[in-house]
Amino acid sequence: MNLMKLDEKEVKLFSAIRFAAEQLLNDKETPVLIVTHLDADGLSAGGIIASTLARANIPFQVQVKRQLEDEIIESIADLQPPRIIFTDFGSGQFVRLKEKFKDSSVIILDHHPPIENDESPLVDNWAHVNPHLVGIDSSHEISGAGLAFFFAQEIDPKNNDLAVLGIVGAIGDRQEGEENKFSNLNQMMVEEGLKSNLLNSFTGIRLFGRETRPIHRILQYSTEPFIPDITGNEDNAVRFLKEIGIPLKEGDRWRTIADLTKQERTIFTSALVKKMILGGVSPNEAKKIVGPNYILNNEELGSPLRDAREFSTFLNACGRLGKPSIGIAVCMGDRGYVFKQGIEISNQYRGEISDFLIFLEDNIESITEFDGMFYLNAKTEIKDTAIGTIASIAMGNRIIDPSKPLIMAALSDDSSLKMSGRGTNELVARGLDLGQAMREALAKINAGDEGGGHNVAAGARIAQELEEPFIQALNEIISLQLTE
Ligand SMILES: [Mn+2]
Fold first, then answer.
1. Ligand 1 mean position, distance from CA 240 (Å)
2. What's the CATH number for 3-198?
3. Which one of 86, 146, 302, 409 is least enclosed by Cβ atoms within 10 Å?
4. CA–centroid distance, residue 330 to ligand 1 (Å)
5. Per-residue pLDDT tens digits for 358-413
């Protein structure tokens, strides 16, 4: 690592990473339990650590969890693991982890805001690495996978090939900033990837399946961005392309976006942006269809892993549909039978997401407007594992008026109510902190402590009968945040 390029806070972060790496390398015999978060960032992080330990001949096991709730912590404690690495979560529970695992050796590599300041993050058998602890805002600069990558590189510089997974994780956590570009530590990973020729980056149309799928299918299945009238509607997608004079086929073969001529590309992009703006999408959001693309040079053409954004969606699908181990295996290099199972899961997931978005569009009228937020309980119409994604897409694409955060609920299999809230950077600048609001609302009505997250995206789980008081409390807290 070129330390010359780092600012003071980053230097502090890297010395914490080095402390954690030394702790790991002190002992190459005792097995390590890796516990990681279920989303694309968490799976990338877990995959990076698993590869790192495999290459260092350190025995390990991986567990993937949706959340680090008390029961989960208990079940991990029952295993009496001598060494644990938590990735992409742990900081929110560090006090409990410190107490529960005081006889184990613990490394936490997390970027979620810690519950409180860890006064001694780096001691003997405890390495708590989190950018917040050194004053770095980790919503845009580095994710769980990025921390895992820099840790891996500290263990062995040969692990630099894992930078691409760091980027996949950062994309999964939507860490791209202005003009959809990465900055600081995330950008350092991009440069690492470019330097080692594992990555190719270019600015162009950013739609899923750009190199491999027929163009009308790309439009029909586009959920990010959601294209009004076109997402979920094959006829309209075909009609749109005909209207702007783009042939769907070349001989017998369906054309892809990569096949478009330069002139066609310009026509396609501006017509699509116009269509989206007319459909209510904000100009800034609509322009997001053009921006940096990250191509993984070592992946086969046509593979969903070739584009970092698609890789991230692939991992997200594995996690959300209950097959996280497929995601970890693929991150560790599997491209055989397991990977093929993952492709099926990923296709199924994309279909579900577009169905859910269409449900949301059809039910815009059922959304309740409060002083501080919008609220929709989708009950069982949207899977509880997908509401966060749906709320993000709805906010990002202005399906919902972005002047207030959107809170969505869905009923889980265990009859509890899962809540997901999403805001915008503008709302955060005005004082919104959804993670804090979720925690406060839970505490206010004694609804347990299953909740929290980031300022712009957060969630909670409550008993069904507490819906009304919870929503009221949440609305009051958010209203206050936005007026202060
Ligand atoms: Mn993350």
1. 37
2. 3.90.1640.30
3. 302
4. 18
5. 899 889 899 999 999 999 999 999 999 889 889 988 887 777 888 999 999 999 99
pTM of the model: 0.83
State pLDDT tens for residues 463-483.
Answer: 999 999 999 999 999 999 999
Say how many Å lie between the CA of residue 110 and the centre of ligand 1: 7
Does 236 have pLDDT greater than 70? Answer: yes
For ligand 1, the distance from its centroid to the CA atom of residue 163, given in whole angstroms, is 15
CA of 261 to the centre of ligand 1 (A): 38
Return d(Cα 126, Cα 103) in angstroms, integer: 10
**418-473 pLDDT, tens digit each:** 999 999 878 999 999 999 999 999 999 999 988 888 888 899 999 999 999 999 99
Q: How many A from CA of 39 to the centre of ligand 1?
A: 7
Q: For residue 41, count other CB atoms closer than 10 A to its CB.
A: 32
The predicted pLDDT at position 422 comes to 93
Report CA(268)–ligand 1 centroid distance (Å).
34
Cα separation of 114 and 404, whole Å? 26
- Cα of 88 to ligand 1 centre, how many Å? 5
Query: 363-483, what's its fold?
Result: Diaminopimelate Epimerase; Chain A, domain 1 (3.10.310)
Contacts of residue 337, Cβ cutoff 8 Å, sequence gap at least 6: none
Find where tokens 């997001």 sit: 288
* Half-sphere exposure for 418 (CA within 13 Å, toward CB): 21
State the pLDDT at residue 345: 94
Q: Where are the domains of the chain?
A: 3-198, 204-326+340-357, 363-483
Expressed in angstroms and rounded, the spacing between residue 246 Cα and the centre of ligand 1 is 39
Distance, CA 147 to ligand 1 centroid (Å)? 10
β partners of residue 34: 62, 85
Q: Which residues surround ligand 1, an ion (CB under 5 A)?
A: 41, 88, 143-144, 173
